[in-house]
Amino acid sequence: MDGHYLDIKKFLPHRAPFLMVDQVLSIDDEHVSTSFNIKPNCIFNELGVFNEAGLLENAAQTCSSIVGKSFFKEDDTEGEGVKLIGFISAIKKVVVSLCPNVGSTIVTNAKLKSRFDTDQYSICTIICTTTLDHKELLSCELNLVIQEVK
């Protein structure tokens, strides 16, 4: 699904100043690509640089949208009536190669590695890479738990 018309705020519980994804570039059941423009007032900026914690939070938010999408009907681009919570249950591996400057636009790609669903929640393992101008900034493997709030 082409994500240029999706409002990411409908599919993630995060809000400013903690929302670290601007646009969904593409999304399907096993992959997502997002972009984020690092603004000067971002809470993860340090001395003009987007820090490691910000890169990891951007990756986690990107990753959670793959599983979060599955809670919505295919034609639901507004996220009507569904509220989700999610958290990182494990960071299996993370490598930060470079932190980008404020004003940069980063692109994050995530691929679902495994998923286990119960009646109450989904647990998944996702591999993620963040780049700036095709140069890798971060790579990681995360376990996430996503749950619908009823």
Protein architecture, described:
With 150 residues, the chain is mostly beta strands. It has a single domain (8-149), classed as Roll (Thiol Ester Dehydrase, Chain A), CATH 3.10.129. Helix content is 12%, strand content 46%. The protein has one helix at residues 52-69, and strands at residues 23-27, 31-37, 45-46, 49-50, 83-96, 105-117, 122-132, 135-149. The strands form two sheets. The chain has a six-stranded antiparallel beta sheet, with helices on one face.
Total strand count, please?
A: 8
Order of helices and strands: EEEEHEEEE
Query: Cα distance, first to last residue?
Result: 27 Å
What kind of assembly state do the chains in view correspond to?
single chain
Total count of domains: 1
Question: What proportion strand?
Answer: over 45%
User: Segments where pLDDT lies below 50 for 5+ residues?
Assistant: none
Can you give the mean pLDDT?
86
Number of helical regions: 1
Strand order of the largest sheet: 1-2-6-7-8-5
| Biggest beta sheet attributes | 6 strands, antiparallel
Instruction: Please identify the structural class as seen in this structure.
Output: mainly beta
CATH fold field value:
Thiol Ester Dehydrase, Chain A
CATH architecture assignment name = Roll
Indicate the percent of residues in helices: 10-25%
Taking all Cα atoms into account, the compactness measure Rg is: 14 Å
Superfamily (CATH H level) name? Hotdog Thioesterase
CATH class: Alpha Beta
Gist?
This protein has 150 residues and is mainly β. The chain has one helix spanning 52-69; strands spanning 23-27, 31-37, 45-46, 49-50, 83-96, 105-117, 122-132, 135-149.
